[in-house]
Sequence to fold (413 residues):
Amino acid sequence: MKRSFTVVVSAAIVAALSSSLSAQWPLRPQPGVPKGTNGKPNLTAPAPRKPDGKPDLSGIWMRTNRTEAPGSQPAGQPPLATFGNIGLGFKEGLPFQPWVADLLKKRANAYDNPDALCLPQGPLEYHLDPQPREIIQLPQKTVIVYESNYGIRTIYTDGRPLPPQGGPQPYWHGYSVGRWDGDTLVVTSNNFRGALTGQPGDGWLDGKGDPFTDALTLTERFRRVNFGKLQIDVTIDDSKAYTRPFTVRVEQEIVADGSEMIEFICHENQKFLQLTGRAPAP
Amino acid sequence: MKIRAVVVLVGIGLLLAARPIVAHHAFAAEFDADKPVKLTGPVTKFEWTNPHGWIYIDVKDETGKVVNWGFELAGASGLMRQGWTRFSLKAGDVVTIEGTRAKNGSNNANAATVIVASTGEKLFAGNNQGQ
Fold:
């Protein structure tokens, strides 16, 4: 499928479009993009670093669309997750607890997908949505702004401990703290709302409704492989929903063509409930 | 249905790579992949909105009665990345739209392609099955 922003427009068409293109959101080249000898962004240049020496994860990131056949990932690496199915790479499927089978049947109609309801997406939906997300790495916290459904997530990196499970009010995005392990930002999160609340939209990891519960401890290892590539290995540890922890990989690519995040107000013209018969047509 | 004539300006000349973009919503919950539709008619309304844009067109049925159909597009943000603008269509433009009909039997569908009759230009609609 797509690479970020791989829109193919012929030169003639661009010329024909010039008047309407001027009405679009303007391109504004990102600062600090390393250039190759051809003047184009050098995406394989080393990852930038902050003054403290840590890699700088800041930037606008798009998911890649690379997929793997189940079980075909290189030895020792977690399988790639997809937006629709984080368990795609597992030959035997995900290690569900028995009760999850009934939940997945109920979710097969996708009526309660938080994405469709304009509610905050699950943590892997946010990582894998085709819309971009912007990471803003600050000294005491890292903030991720997700264009899809306007999610905003704070990862505290000020040294505070992870609170006890069941302590803080459960959040859609959980409670996240981060620490550096060499050049990898390790983010641990708990206190999520989960599927067992019974509320529509709660506890979805992907488009098919693989669940998480309030027992979830999520570990994400963010590694900026080079200027252009971000790798996030995500471990789901949720004994209520799964018989063992498992890890999947997310790949993202930097946006370096000058395009930016675009406003996305999901309830602006939401017709999902009408189209699924749960709200009257106007 | 009350028809509001919205939208301004010019038809355009673009041919965009057919790539799914904004996989926003639960396609299978709303649309029946086994019910393709292909309809032609003048645009009555163009909603440049999120989470989806919508095109409404008037279509004559087999008895000659005019029926208004709605076609779901990708959201405005995704359409912008595809090269659309809010001026890409205007009321009165005749278009042919191919897509997939709503499961609920209403006169709605998810658009895959939109062809502007006067120019033959093809606009990719951002079918949201690409998840």
Remarks:
- The helical segments of chain A are 11-21, 100-107, 123-128, 272-275.
- The first helix of chain A runs from residue 11 to 21.
